[in-house]
Amino acid sequence: QVHLVETGGGLVQAGGSLRLSCAASGRPITTFAMGWFRQAPGKDREFVASINWSGRDTYYADSVKGRFTVSRDNAANMVFLQMDSLKPVDTAVYYCALDLTYNGASYAPTVANDYDYWGQGTQVTVSA
After folding, report:
1. What average pLDDT does the segment 104-114 reach?
2. Vertex 21: Cα angle to 74 and 113 (nearest 5)
């Protein structure tokens, strides 16, 4: 069993930055792909970014490419999402997730259904 807890959300003005953290407990995340997703009110959960076990391979939604950066610290059992140049459309609850399938692979899924464990989410609100 894996428990994921996201922190770092909050209210920020457009153009500002936030850094989300995801702390994992229950088992090491060292060899597992991790992802970030978000869900705005009235919308489906959407992919934001993902990172393979080593951190060498990263993937981003077109809407955040060049503004967001995903990283991980396997020794600390944590994953991060640095969000810069935030826009009001980035307002959503952000979730981190762990995938068990691509264990040790040079790939990290971009589809929510591929992930096995989820955090409770952290609210990010970007004001105009």
Report:
1. 93
2. 80
